[in-house]
Specification:
The complex is a heterodimer of chains A (about 300) and B (about 400).
Chain A: H1 19-31, H2 38-48, H3 53-62, H4 87-97, E1 123-125, H5 138-153, E2 157-162, E3 168-181, E4 186-192, E5 199-201, E6 205-210, E7 227-235, H6 240-247, E8 252-259, E9 262-270, H7 274-282, E10 288-292, H8 294-308
Antiparallel strand pairs in A: 2-3, 2-6, 3-4, 4-5, 7-9, 7-10, 8-9
Helix pairs in contact in A: 1-2, 2-3
Chain B: H1 11-23, H2 36-50, E1 54-59, E2 62-67, H3 90-102, E3 109-111, H4 112-123, H5 135-148, E4 151-156, E5 159-164, H6 173-182, H7 187-194, E6 203-206, H8 216-227, E7 230-238, E8 243-256, E9 263-269, E10 274-279, E11 283-291, H9 295-305, E12 322-329, H10 335-344, E13 349-354, E14 357-364, H11 371-375, E15 381-386, H12 389-405
Antiparallel strand pairs in B: 1-2, 3-5, 4-5, 7-8, 7-11, 8-9, 9-10, 12-14, 12-15, 13-14
Helix pairs in contact in B: 1-2, 3-4, 4-5, 6-7
Classes of the chains: A alpha+beta (about 300), B alpha+beta (about 400).
């Protein structure tokens, strides 16, 4: 038996991936075992579908437009729905298997007969920084997998690493999650329970193992982003509106139009990232002006004063 | 037509989501490209799909709705939900679950006629007013699933038999959680995650441009065209005249920016004999044509050009390049500034002049593309020289405007 060649048009936007199909699959999985009542249907729809979906789904079952569930809540379906992984999904997984970062995960994507949806030759990230984490390094891979295991089991880790001043430090802490930056191409581990910090750059780890002793939480502080905000005004010239809006789109932000060509944007950022935000604001030159808070305006001014000392 | 939270086409919602997410300051009346009814429907849909990320301001012009997502907090791209809102018929969903119940194991194979009989006798007959599906409707559905790779076919004699695709299980949640957010067309990874029970999400993402998913299907079609080495016609939106235009190109590679949130197709325009960039979010439709026999040669050409590309600008007439050189000063305890120069440069060279000074030099197609990066070193640029004096003037004029805006005097 052979696969038929895939035509991509409307393959991603297909009802088989819809939340409705997913919700109905879970409803039928219950109904196969025991008749389901309205309450169960509502519970499943609330978990797997959209906030207004219950109106349509309940009605479709009640009126038997979808002939899958009878009025007593039982179903003629005999088996728990088990929809196979389709060709598009397999081709995407095959593309995953070609990414150098797959080595970090202890897994084997065996899809020898499948063509990848894309290969590293088909796309290029042209502006990520060049000192990304060493995904080929055996020690790095080993540490990454230990961290994943500890995350899964919520077990404490004993980490030896170099701090910013290149001094050896030890952190015994509970791992919370890994944070990946596409721009830096680096992973950071967010931890709690250590006085020696809450952020561990994976590239700086010298050794890492599951902590075997009795873990004692050394601090009551959790890693929490300290939200600050900066307010910018911008004039839509040289396509600045589109550029600024898109550039800062990954932050929580609020925008208002002041008049025909002027806009005000309030961006919320983590205090730890303030220097980065200052640099990013500077990169837009005179197209944006920081108006609040005063401290942020002063950071910009300070840099401009230093620059003005040099005659270009 | 009455309102339905599901949609038939992705095009309209693609525009609205971008407007609400990237801009988010327009009132209902300012969406002048569409009807007010359309605006109301699309907004209501978005509220149903991703209401927790939607907000509004009250202004003198009315409410302005927006989507606001802190990508470091949201572990999964909320915009993926739009891809999971495709409408379907009552027959589509009924047949889907019944067919996969009949063919629940790869060991079971049946002909179309056998499947039709089973559907009628063992499933629909339980209902008061059983639906009637004719054989051709069911055959069409079966063939659709074969095309998707959900079913496979085989012949015994002249009869075609259908069976479920061999079992393939991939349930490494860490792999799916991570790659569904960082690889092109990551929404497909999200479809896979939907198949499994909720588990722990161990990854968060910084500097994460979630809007790129809105162009996933376009990207998928482009990958397909590249693999088949096809020449294509692209219908794209032109920002200049707000109209759509068509261009025939050989698609070569997708260039992705993780600093601006943009994605580009790098393509060869035969009529102009040059490689150019086309933003994916401006592409409306793609039609494919005959095979481009020189595809490999053109891709190699693009590869060779990369050393002169800061962003996506390619050669002008005659393949001319421009040069830029600037020097920065840093204090004894600011070694990280020198490191920034080294790790952030995409081409060119860095020369350490002495303990506190370094010079960056590059030869690129378009020095204008470098201005935003060079400005990030403001406060320490001691010397700068562009071969394109217009660009140099822009840089200096901009700097002077900044001094003026912030009232900087020495």
């Amino acid at each position: 038996m052979k696969y038929t060649e895939l035509n991509y048009k409307n393959m991603i936007f297909n009802e088989i991936y819809s939340t409705y199909f997913n919700a109905v699959s879970h409803i039928l999985a219950e109904a196969v075992k025991n008749p389901v009542d309205k309450g169960k249907i509502r519970e499943i729809v609330a978990k797997y579908a959209f906030s207004e979906s219950i109106i349509n789904i309940e009605d479709a079952f009640r009126t038997q437009k979808w002939q899958l569930l009878m009025s007593n809540g039982s179903t003629p379906v005999k088996n728990i729905p088990d929809i196979p992984v389709d060709l598009l999904e397999k081709r995407w997984l095959k593309a995953v298997s070609l990414d150098p970062r797959i080595k970090l995960f202890n897994c084997d994507i065996q899809l020898d007969e499948v063509e990848p949806l894309f290969t590293p030759d088909d796309y290029y990230v042209f502006d990520k920084y060049s000192d990304g984490d060493p995904y080929d390094d055996g020690e790095y891979i080993k540490n990454f997998q230990i961290i994943l295991k500890a995350l899964e089991r919520s077990e404490p880790l004993d980490i030896h690493m170099l701090n910013k001043k290149s001094n050896d430090i030890e952190i015994i802490a509970i791992p919370e999650y890994l944070e990946y930056s596409e721009k830096d191409d680096k992973f950071r581990l967010i931890v709690t329970g250590s006085r020696n910090g809450s952020v561990v750059n994976l590239g700086r780890i010298r050794s890492c193992e599951i902590y075997q002793g009795e873990f004692k939480n050394k601090t009551s502080e959790n890693y929490q982003s300290k939200k600050f905000s900066v307010t910018l005004e911008l004039k839509d010239e040289r396509n600045s509106l589109e550029r600024v809006m898109l550039h800062f789109s990954h932050y929580e932000k609020y925008t208002e139009k002041i008049d025909d060509n002027n806009y005000r944007v309030k961006i919320y950022y983590d205090k730890n990232d303030e220097t980065e935000i200052i640099i990013r604001v500077l990169s837009f030159g005179p197209l944006i002006k920081v108006t609040k808070p005063r401290s942020f305006v002063n950071y910009i001014k300070k840099r401009l004063i230093s620059q003005k000392k040099y005659v270009l | 037509m009455s309102y339905n939270e599901l949609i038939k086409s992705f095009d309209k919602i693609r525009d609205y989501m971008r407007e609400f997410y990237v801009y988010g300051f327009k009132s209902r009346e300012q969406y002048n490209k569409k009807s007010l009814r359309s605006y109301d429907d699309e907004r209501r849909r978005l509220e149903s799909w991703i209401g927790e990320y939607m907000g509004y301001h009250k202004t003198t012009e009315g409410k302005t709705f927006f989507i606001s997502v802190d990508s470091r907090i949201s572990r999964h791209n909320p915009l993926y939900k739009a891809w999971k809102a495709k409408s379907f018929t009552d027959g589509d969903i009924t047949l889907f679950f019944i067919i996969f119940d009949i063919l629940h194991s790869p060991d079971i194979t049946m002909s179309n006629i056998e499947i039709v009989e089973k559907i009628d006798m063992e499933y629909l007959s339980f209902f008061d007013n059983p639906k009637v599906f004719d054989g051709s409707t069911i055959r069409k559905k079966l063939n659709e699933y074969v095309k998707n790779g959900l079913l496979v076919t085989g012949k015994i004699g002249k009869t075609l038999y259908y069976g479920k695709s061999p079992d393939y299980c991939f349930n490494n949640r860490d792999v799916l959680n991570y790659f569904s957010e960082v690889l092109p067309c990551g929404v497909i990874g999200s479809f896979l995650l939907d198949k499994y029970e909720n588990g722990k999400d161990n990854f968060a993402f910084k500097h994460h441009y979630i809007n790129s998913t809105l162009d996933s299907e376009i990207m998928c079609e482009l990958f397909s065209a590249m693999h088949e080495k096809k020449e294509i016609e692209i219908e794209k939106f032109s920002r200049k005249n707000e109209k759509s235009t068509s261009i025939r190109v050989v698609p070569l590679r997708i260039f992705i920016s993780v600093q601006s949130g943009r994605q580009y197709l790098m393509a060869y325009v035969r009529s102009k004999k040059r490689i150019t960039s086309i933003r994916l979010d401006y592409i409306l439709k793609i039609k494919s044509f005959a095979e481009a026999e020189d595809f490999d040669k053109l891709r190699d050409l693009l590869c060779g050009m990369r050393k002169y590309m800061w962003g996506v600008s390619t050669q002008g007439k005659g393949g001319r390049t421009e040069t830029v050189e600037f020097t920065i000063n840093f204090a004894d305890d600011e070694e990280y500034i020198y490191n920034r120069l080294v790790r952030e440069k995409r081409c060119g060279t860095v020369e350490r002049i002495d303990k506190n000074n370094a010079v960056f030099r590059a030869e690129v197609y378009d020095t204008n593309e470098m201005l935003t990066w060079i400005r990030t070193f403001i406060c320490r640029i001691t010397h700068i020289n562009f071969s394109n004096k217009d660009i140099e003037k822009t840089f200096i004029d901009d700097l002077n405007r900044m001094y003026e805006i912030y009232g900087v005097e020495l």
